[in-house]
């Protein structure tokens, strides 16, 4: 494997902590909030998750890169992490799907990496003091200079990062290209689709705040037609697509500065254009935007939730799912009150809010990633629940005699046993 053998790289944190290691990937310098991810595999999906925009990611698993980079596991058209931190970069790439090494992929995409540092010490430090601003450099090796750069860097709070990762124009996900890779990236950039759209199935308007391909795959697999729209789309533009459902996607950073998205969600909830109400499903950043649109607040977590092993309890059924998570902010459950919003999911590690549903309207959201990619598939049932909700609203049952309500009700909690976790290569 061709690496910058012997070239020094430094990771410097704003509190003066300095880690010295060896460079790999692109030679250069980056800044961002440094966070740790506890997934044992799935580094390709982590690198290409748009929710990591503005962050330097440290993997807690000690050996990274052993199965290389393939054409199927991309979650977007490019890597979004600012920098990548590992204990040991594998010198061996061994997998039948591998097309190139991790080192080569990062080089080609201008992402600097550092290996050889004590990632356990870094993780324990971040758990103690919280996520911190940092600089990773293989061109400036003066620790004092790098610490000062880290202190002057903007961080995440108060920044709109959604606009940096969203698509520029509306495009349709192509079921024939579900494997991932180049076709979706071309479509996201406005290129002509490579295959005809699905002829049938409910249309789902996906507001792209940094959507992962895994979400689009799961929508397609339950029979829906995802129509991906820019984050700045208005409520009128969304409803002009004549969707049967709306999905609010994941995305990076602080939700509160993204006021245009919150206003669109609020309009879709309170007063949808044309008076036609359709089911809404929020994931991660979409959960944040629904929280804000419903009158709640969000706050920053100490070190965030990043990994594929977070236990979440469904408060309606008592069942626990092991979930994939990637967020540094969280909705404040107490701010939502006891009115129309029901708390549906709770994180069992820190008891924070993980899911909500509207008591009267066909609206629900989760803070975690039910599509996994990578990780356990325990929460895939939520996509089936969304599809069932869409079909229930589109074809309502006959009115019960004596009932005067025409308001569609939210779907009942799903009680089916979650599917077994995948043991395939490249997924935790």
Search tags:
Glucose Oxidase, domain 1; 428 residues; 2 domains
Q: How would you characterize this protein structure?
A:
This protein is an alpha/beta fold. The protein has 2 domains: 8-152, Carbamoyl-phosphate synthase small subunit, N-terminal domain (Glucose Oxidase, domain 1, 3-Layer(bba) Sandwich); 162-394, Rossmann fold (3-Layer(aba) Sandwich). It contains 11 helices and 19 strands. Helix 9 (259-270) crosses helix 10 (285-293). The chain is globular and about 65 Å long. Residues 178-199 and 396-428 have low confidence and may be disordered.
Quick take:
This protein has 428 residues and is an alpha/beta fold. It has helices at 43-47, 102-108, 119-129, 143-152, 162-165, 182-188, 213-221, 235-240, 259-270, 285-293, 381-394; strands at residues 8-13, 18-25, 29-37, 55-59, 63-64, 83-86, 88-89, 112-115, 132-137, 171-172, 203-208, 225-230, 245-248, 280-283, 298-314, 320-331, 341-347, 353-358, 363-366. It folds into 2 domains: 8-152, Carbamoyl-phosphate synthase small subunit, N-terminal domain (Glucose Oxidase, domain 1); 162-394, Class I glutamine amidotransferase (GATase) domain (Rossmann fold).
């Amino acid at each position: 494997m061709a690496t910058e053998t012997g070239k020094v790289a430094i990771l410097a944190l704003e509190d003066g902590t300095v880690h010295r290691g060896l460079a790999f990937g692109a030679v250069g310098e980056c800044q961002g909030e440094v966070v740790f991810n506890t997934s044992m595999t799935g580094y390709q999906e982590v690198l290409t998750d748009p929710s990591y925009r503005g962050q330097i990611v440290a993997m807690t698993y000690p050996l990274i890169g052993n199965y290389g980079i393939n054409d199927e596991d991309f979650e977007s058209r490019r890597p979004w992490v600012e920098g990548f931190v590992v204990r040991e970069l594998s010198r061996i790439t061994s997998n039948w799907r591998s097309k190139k090494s991790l080192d080569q992929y990062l080089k080609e995409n201008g992402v600097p990496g550092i290996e050889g540092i004590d990632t356990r010490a870094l993780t324990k430090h971040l758990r103690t003091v919280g996520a911190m601003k940092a600089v990773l450099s293989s061109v400036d090796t003066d620790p004092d200079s790098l610490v000062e750069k880290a202190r002057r860097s903007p961080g995440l709070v108060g920044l709109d990062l959604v606009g940096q990762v969203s698509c520029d124009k509306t495009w349709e996900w192509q079921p024939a290209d579900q494997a991932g890779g180049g076709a979706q990236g071309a479509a996201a950039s406005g290129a002509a689709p490579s295959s005809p759209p699905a002829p049938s199935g409910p249309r789902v308007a996906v507001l792209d705040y940094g959507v992962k391909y895994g979400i689009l795959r799961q929508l397609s697999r339950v029979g829906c037609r995802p129509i991906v729209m820019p984050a700045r789309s208005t409520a009128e533009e969304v409803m002009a697509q004549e969707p049967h459902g709306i999905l609010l996607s994941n995305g990076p950073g602080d939700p509160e500065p993204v006021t245009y998205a919150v206003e669109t969600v609020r309009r879709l909830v309170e007063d949808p254009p044309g008076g036609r109400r359709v089911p809404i499903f929020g994931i991660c950043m979409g959960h944040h935007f629904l929280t804000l649109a419903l009158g709640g607040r969000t706050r920053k977590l100490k070190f965030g939730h990043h990994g594929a092993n977070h236990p979440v309890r469904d408060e309606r059924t008592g069942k626990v799912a092991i979930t994939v998570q990637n967020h540094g902010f969280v909705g404040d459950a107490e701010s939502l009150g006891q009115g129309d919003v029901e708390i549906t999911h709770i994180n069992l590690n820190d008891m924070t809010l993980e899911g909500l549903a509207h008591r009267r309207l066909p609206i629900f959201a989760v803070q975690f990633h039910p599509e996994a990619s990578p990780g356990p598939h325990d929460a895939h049932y939520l996509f089936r629940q969304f599809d069932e909700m869409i079909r229930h609203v589109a074809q309502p049952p006959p009115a019960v005699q004596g009932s005067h309500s025409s308001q569609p009700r939210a779907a009942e909690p799903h009680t089916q046993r979650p599917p077994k976790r995948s043991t395939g290569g490249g997924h935790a």
